[in-house]
Amino acid sequence: MDINWANVFDWMQLLKCFAVGGAICVIGQILIDKTKLTPARILVTFVTIGAVLGGLGLYKYVVDFAGAGATVPLTGFGYNLAKGSIEGVQQSGLIGAFTGGIKAAAGGIAAAVFFGYIASLISKPKMKKQ
Amino acid sequence: MDPTQSKKEYQEYVDKKSPNSPIVKNIFNAFWTGGLICSIGQIIMNICKERGLDQTMSGTVVSIILIGITAILTGLNIFNKIGKFCGAGSLVPITGFANSVVSPAMEYKSEGYVMGVGAKMFTVAGPVLVFGISASIIVGIIYLIFNTQSVTLV
Amino acid sequence: MQKIGKQTIKFDTPPSILECSSIVGPKESDGPLSKYFDQTLEDEFWGEKSWEKAESKIIRENVANLILKSGVSSNDIDFVIAGDLLNQCISSSFGLRDSNIPYLGVFGACSTFVESLSIGAVMVEGFAKNVICATSSHFCSAEKQFRFPLELGNQRPPTSQWTVTGSGAAMISKNGYGPFITHITPGKIVDMAIKDANNMGAAMAPAFCDTLLTHLKDTGRNPSYYDAIISGDLGYIGKDIAIDIIKANGYNIKSNYNDCGVLIFDKQKQDTHSGGSGCACCASVFSGYFFKQLKSKNLKRILLIATGALMNSTSSQQGESIPGIAHAISIEI
């Protein structure tokens, strides 16, 4: 299949993605430096905020505007879970609230578990030099 | 004046005495590295779409590829250096989630594959799933309550 | 042996430190004190399968080297007193399980080295002939237990300290030509409600000052009596704070005070932020550097005050503050 590289490198779209993705990370950096939150807490905060904004239907606008700039940060992971849950409810009611979220995020979770396991098989931790 | 006269005074004194993180530099690095990681994701997503995948599937492919790259870099003992430089720039994107799954898996290998790798894999990232999934279920239930006309309970 | 003042013990026949031995990891051997250590390692695993096993090997080899250097037959060693940072002090007990010497495991966090020297000195003054005091710590095993997996890509705040990989050990003996342990001042727990586990120096500095001031009062000495006053691992921030607090209490220690955590690493080149820490910080710097300075009479009287933060990750997660402790030992020739 031919790929239209002009569509792949849509500069305007990439710029928006870069700016929004960068800005979300900056919020994270300010949280790290100013509040002394541990990395785990930062990740939890972002996922939860993403799920809430997704549930309120607000995060959709960020995704429409910035594409991967909004879906690659963990807020996007939360948004994805919430979106999946809502879609699940639409399809199959209450049960969908339980199945929809993980179904939507299944690829990422499974990949992290699997690659984590593989990495532990073949690799060993090493001392940080700095 | 002796700063150890009261605990409150000492805390204030210590806050004044302790150097702050180089926040301007950190923010700058977090911005451009975070933006870059998202842009790489966007390029992968565009390629997927060009190949005829739908939006949802493309998003999943982006996640899997970024997680895979992170796992490789973590396994090669490189990601901790990237993380030290990027800060939130590599922590907040899905790469940070992947790194926080892969790094304990490697670290606790010495305690065996079941109780080490298997059990400790989610020591850092577990809360992300707990809170993310719980929040999404609550969102779904609230949606169900406010939209009862359009859906039927199972 | 008698108690003087509030909490200081003065020895009538001061026990002698017969010999010291030290082993450090690769990062420490890139530091400014590199040439003083007996052995430097090239990698943190040292041929072992885990960080914990490597740390056990470090303390085992270090004690073996100490016995060899001292020329004392291991039958003549009455006790070995050792400790480390890992849960239930496994580095020391696993490292020394085949040593065939009566063993006492002690825990005082990073103050363990001086704690074990104090106990050892009391034993030697009493009934023992030779006692070994040893401690170890390992950057990787400490990170794993107290902080995060090594491969996690996080940033260390500028107040954080770097756990020293290595071990220091000393042989205290009834017979010997010095340097002698003349006084010990075991410290009390001081908690100034610091909660930031990335700012140990600030948490421990008040304990250091409390012990130092008590020692001076009990002995009637002035800080200038000592050629060097050495704290264990306050790091740059803790050192600054300590100087301030002591100054507010009427003494200026700026000229003869230093910190092992400051000395062991090159802050600019090695990016260790606030300096070194860990049981091995004070132990290896004393065994490697200060003991040799005392032997060669470059320094005649030193006051070694090891500092410790008596917390673990559970207490931090439960929102507890960090209790500090500091034990002082006066070593003279």
Describe this structure in words.
The complex is a heterotrimer of chains A (130), B (154) and C (333). Chain A has 130 residues and is an all-alpha fold. Chain A has one domain. Helices cover 82% and strands 0% of the residues of chain A. In chain A, 54% of the residues are buried. The mean pLDDT of chain A is 92. Chain B has one domain (7-123). Helix content of chain B is 75%, strand content 0%. In chain B, helix 6 packs antiparallel against helix 7 (113-120). The mean pLDDT of chain B is 92. Chain C is of the alpha/beta class and 333 residues long. Chain C has two domains: 2-173, Stage V sporulation protein AD (Peroxisomal Thiolase, Chain A, domain 1, 3-Layer(aba) Sandwich), CATH 3.40.47; 180-332, 3-Layer(aba) Sandwich (Peroxisomal Thiolase, Chain A, domain 1). Chain C has helices spanning 26-29, 51-70, 90-95, 112-126, 139-146, 200-219, 235-248, 260-264, 267-270, 279-295, 313-317; strands at 2-4, 8-10, 16-24, 39-40, 79-83, 103-105, 130-137, 162-163, 166-173, 180-185, 228-231, 257-259, 276-277, 301-309, 324-332. In chain C, helix 6 (200-219) packs across helix 7. The model of chain C has no long low-confidence stretch (mean pLDDT 95). Chains in contact: A-B, A-C, B-C. Chain A binds chain C through residues 32, 36, 39, 125-130, and chain C through 25-27, 43-44, 139-140, 148-152, 154-155, 157, 196, 198, 270-271.
The N- and C-terminal alpha carbons of chain B lie at a distance of: 71 Å
The amount of helix of chain A comes to: over 70%
Helix/strand order of chain B, N-terminal first: HHHHHHHH
What is the typical, i.e. mean, pLDDT of chain A? 92
Kindly state the mean pLDDT of chain B as a whole number? 92
Which strand-content bin applies to the residues of chain B?
A: under 5%
Q: Give the H and E element order of chain A.
A: HHHHHHH
Q: Quaternary arrangement of the chains shown?
A: heterotrimer
Number of strands of chain B: 0
Q: What's the Cα radius of gyration of chain A?
A: 18 Å
- Overall structural class of chain A, as computed from helix and strand content, comes to mainly alpha
What is this structure's SSE topology?
The complex is a heterotrimer of chains A (130), B (154) and C (333).
Chain A: H1 5-8, H2 11-35, H3 39-55, H4 59-66, H5 68-71, H6 74-92, H7 94-122
Helix pairs in contact in A: 3-6, 6-7
Chain B: H1 7-17, H2 23-50, H3 55-75, H4 79-86, H5 88-91, H6 94-107, H7 113-120, H8 126-146
Helix pairs in contact in B: 2-3, 3-6, 6-7
Chain C: E1 2-4, E2 8-10, E3 16-24, H1 26-29, E4 39-40, H2 51-70, E5 79-83, H3 90-95, E6 103-105, H4 112-126, E7 130-137, H5 139-146, E8 162-163, E9 166-173, E10 180-185, H6 200-219, E11 228-231, H7 235-248, E12 257-259, H8 260-264, H9 267-270, E13 276-277, H10 279-295, E14 301-309, H11 313-317, E15 324-332
Parallel strand pairs in C: 3-4, 5-6, 5-7, 8-13, 11-12, 11-14
Antiparallel strand pairs in C: 1-2, 2-10, 3-9, 7-9, 10-15, 14-15
Helix pairs in contact in C: 6-7
